[in-house]
Amino acid sequence: MMIELVTISHVQSLLNSLSKKENVQEVQPSDALLSKLYRHQRQALSWMCSREEISSLRQDEPAGGILADDMGLGKTLQMISLILTSKPVSVKGNDEPSTVISSNATLIVCPLAVLSQWADEIDRHVAKNRLRVLTCHGPKRDNDPNVIASFDVVLTTYQVAVSSYKMVGNGPLHSIRWRRVVLDEAHFIKNASTMSAKAVFELEAMCRWFMSATPLQNQLQDLYSPMKFLRFMPYADFNQWNTLFGRGKFPNRQNVERLRTVLQSVMLRRSKADRDESGKLLIDLPHRALLIHKLRFSPSEQQVYNELQRHCKQQFASAYKGDQDGGYKQMLTSLLRLRQSCCGLATVETKAAIDVASDTDTKECDDLSKSFANLGVSPAENHALKVDLASGCEICFDPVAESVSSAPCGHAFCTECISTALQTREQCPTCQKRLTKDDLVVKRRPLNDGSAEVHPVKDHVASSTKVKFLLKELAEIEKRPGCEKSVIFSQWTTLLDALEPVLSSAGYQFARLDGSMTKEARQSAVKRFRDTTTTNVFLLSLKCAGVGLNLTAANHCFSLDVWWNGAVEDQAFDRIYRIGQTKPVFIHRLVIANSIEENVLDLQKRKQRLATDILGTGSVANVSKVKLFTMDDLRRLLNV
């Protein structure tokens, strides 16, 4: 019998079909909720309440589930509504060990970038004095489990959960049996073998919620972590999972259909495009225009790009033939430098400073190194790629800023993050090998490693094609009546650095948010942009600010560079296109014509068309999450 394999896009399509739940009832929330819920949110509240009615669930079903609504549909408010509406349960007379404290509290675990937003949302939507909220983060946090358990809601980060998990005996978060544990941006634990995943798996709770608009990103295996976290047996057992659903990135249709049946009872997923029984959209948002601006290099920019591209093609040829050691590493660096040149960052005087390390974030190197692994690159070479080129902090998950601390085991962290972690326990947070501050190599990542002469980028960026276009558009926006604000995304902090003096010289007041900032600084930046009429521009790191934030104060979004994974860009765009937006939204994607940026866009489109052909359907969501590059794809990127 022939086994038919399917793409991850097909799996994603099947997940999207889970939204088609018939005859979903509605529940009115508690009067402590100040905000009015949309109909789809009242339906979600009904479904979530039913998922927590333990007595009505089958014995093998977990209490809780996967809330996978599209970005901007109000998952946070739905969870707050559940916390307010659900009735307290008795915590006395249970069979828990004497070392475990039973509590009616809800523990919410989220990335640092959205920690303060949870507190803000609770403060905005909940009547005063109806919920006691504790933020459990930072070196001065209260570690007494009795104190922590006395609150109604406890907000914390994945790293604090890891710290609690690694303590001798039970750490404070692991000494409590919670009413519910909620994982926000839960795709951060898609790899079940990481410390973050292990830490949240071991939290005790009556009910568990896995919140993510993108529970499936790279492969079918991504869906094992939700099963493990929910303790949904037998699927939470890894051997059983592999037996039932198979290994690898391309499962067969039978396994996918089997998984769909399993997920049907525990996942709720709706998109902005869904309509109710009367044909009305779930939420009535203003018009959204996606504008792709095809720009052309200046003659000097074209000259730099041509030289970089020529050198990149030479490295590709050498790597393909196996003529040089570390060829794939150099080719990856070449691709990054080529893309940087589209933003004015590759300002070289001689033939190519392609080997210069850039500040590309972890996500891109992970994606590309996985892609190269599929072309036969060794795991060791892949590891060297990620650590050497763009190590991201394995504690806070954000791109490492200027100060990088590297451990002898090869793991890299923000200097601030690892310094705080080592105060608790002297071991690597990732692999648990012994580690002290003296073992760390701390350095600032220079733009020039001495292999070529590189000019300061600020003057070149100011005169670059994209920045000139950006300033022209901002000036036009400023002329419009009323207060219209803009967010500007880039994956490169060096580009954001160079933009600051340019914007200041043009008279703009702006805020900035990137992975190097503390929680307090991030919160202050968001508040200043949201609440003042004078700060109308927000500079944002794509990886740091692309998830979780609510930036509906803006209705213009500028994407300065093209990302390999279109889903990451979509998440960033949805920071301004979500519930609460009252103005027409304009998404501006700045793309250099006849460059690698156009080739990346074409690659994404081809993958989408391929999946659409396979499925025989006109719409497949999140297809761009397929990250398997072929050698032909790489040739097309470089026009080889």
Automatic annotation (TrEMBL):
Under CDD domains, the record lists: DEXDc_SHPRH-like, SF2_C_SNF
One biological process GO term for this chain? DNA repair
- Database matches in Pfam families: Helicase_C (PF00271), SNF2-rel_dom (PF00176), zf-C3HC4_2 (PF13923)
Keyword terms:
ATP-binding, Helicase, Hydrolase, Metal-binding, Nucleotide-binding, Zinc, Zinc-finger
GO CC, any one term: nucleus
Q: Looking at the keywords, is Metal-binding present?
A: yes
Ranges for domain Helicase ATP-binding: 56-233
| Record-annotated Helicase C-terminal domain positions | 469-627
Q: Which InterPro entries match?
A: Helicase_ATP-bd, Helicase_C-like, P-loop_NTPase, SNF2-like_sf, SNF2/RAD54-like_C, SNF2_N, SNF2_RAD54_helicase_TF, Znf_RING
Q: Which residues form the RING-type domain?
A: 393-432
Name of the protein? RING-type domain-containing protein
Native organism: Plasmodiophora brassicae
What phylogenetic lineage does the species belong to? Answer: Eukaryota, Sar, Rhizaria, Endomyxa, Phytomyxea
